[in-house]
Write a structure and sequence with these properties.
Helix 4 runs parallel beside helix 6. The protein has 235 residues and is α/β, with parallel strands linked by helices. Helix 1 links the parallel strand 1 and strand 2. Helices cover 35% and strands 20% of the residues. The chain is built from 7 helices and 11 strands. It has one domain: Carbamate kinase, CATH 3.40.1160. A 9-stranded mixed beta sheet has the order 4-3-5-2-1-6-10-11-9, sandwiched between helices. The protein has a two-stranded antiparallel sheet with strand order 7-8. It starts with 6 loop residues before the first strand and ends with a strand. The structure holds uridine-5'-diphosphate. The site of uridine-5'-diphosphate has 25 residues, from helix 2 and helix 4.
Length: 235
């Protein structure tokens, strides 16, 4: 298989790192996800990753706390995941750098766009932690922001479902999967692909998004090599 893209931004939700437990990090699951990342990197594809934090904490789900503080906790959760994914990639022999949007220089590099691009050009995988560094945003928005900054060809949004449906496929057996969608469809039909801030950012910066299932982590390689799986959101 030959890669279709030169530089991709892979969004891994926190949930995807949790395995069957549904919480925390399952290291075998993380290793399974990292193997196709390595394969693609060895094919010459530049790979940046934005990790979520929902396997530990989501700011918006906590109604009892001040939202800003709860979101700070969520961003720290993404830093834990970034380190977990970095460790797995390193165990597979990869060169990795973690950059965080909130400074924690004893633990990771601060986010510096040009340095991130330089790492990518040298074949290192770059993992972005702490989302955008701001409360009231999501890691999907961080993915669209970083993809625009590093001029990624596409955002690969790995999820627990195999694409975007017109209804919840777990509830409605007649739910129809879309092969392609426009950004406007996502925004106007309120399809649960990503939040509207992230979708608008992708639309304004002409960044396509491929939503696909991580149930089989080899899908990462399939998508990067241009196989039509999942749902592609574009103009
Ligand atoms: N978060 C934030 N700003 C950001 C990105 C994330 O405040 O730019 C916080 C927010 O509380 C969010 C949590 O980090 O709920 C985890 O991120 P997200 O919910 O996007 O993770 P995922 O659902 O992808 O695992």
């Amino acid at each position: 298989m030959q890669p279709k893209y030169k530089r991709v931004l892979l969004k891994l939700s926190g949930e995807s790192l949790a395995g069957k437990e549904g919480h925390g990090i399952d290291f075998d699951t993380v290793l399974k996800i990292c193997r196709p990342i390595k394969t693609c990197s060895l094919m010459g594809v530049q790979i940046a990753i934005v990790v979520g934090g929902g396997n530990f904490w989501r700011g918006r789900s906590n109604g009892q706390m001040d939202r800003t503080r709860a979101d700070h906790m969520g961003m720290l959760a993404t830093a834990i995941n970034a380190l977990g994914v970095a460790d797995a990639l390193e165990q597979l022999g990869m060169q990795v750098r973690v950059q965080t949007a909130i400074s924690m220089q004893e633990v990771a590099e601060p986010y510096i766009r040009n340095r991130a691009v330089r790492h990518l050009e040298k074949g290192r995988v770059v993992i972005f932690g702490c989302g955008t560094g701001n409360p009231f945003f999501s890691t999907d928005t961080a993915a669209s922001l970083r993809a625009a900054e590093i001029e990624a060809d596409i955002i690969l949004k790995a999820t627990m479902v195999d694409g975007v449906y017109d209804a919840d496929p777990k509830i409605n057996a007649n739910a129809k999967k879309f092969d392609t969608l426009s950004y406007m469809d996502v925004l106007s039909k309120d399809l649960k692909v990503m939040d509207s801030t992230a979708a608008s950012m992708c639309r304004d910066n002409h960044i396509p998004i491929c939503v696909f299932s991580l149930e089989d982590p080899e899908n990462i390689e399939r998508v990067i090599c241009g196989q039509s799986i999942g749902t592609v959101v574009k103009e």
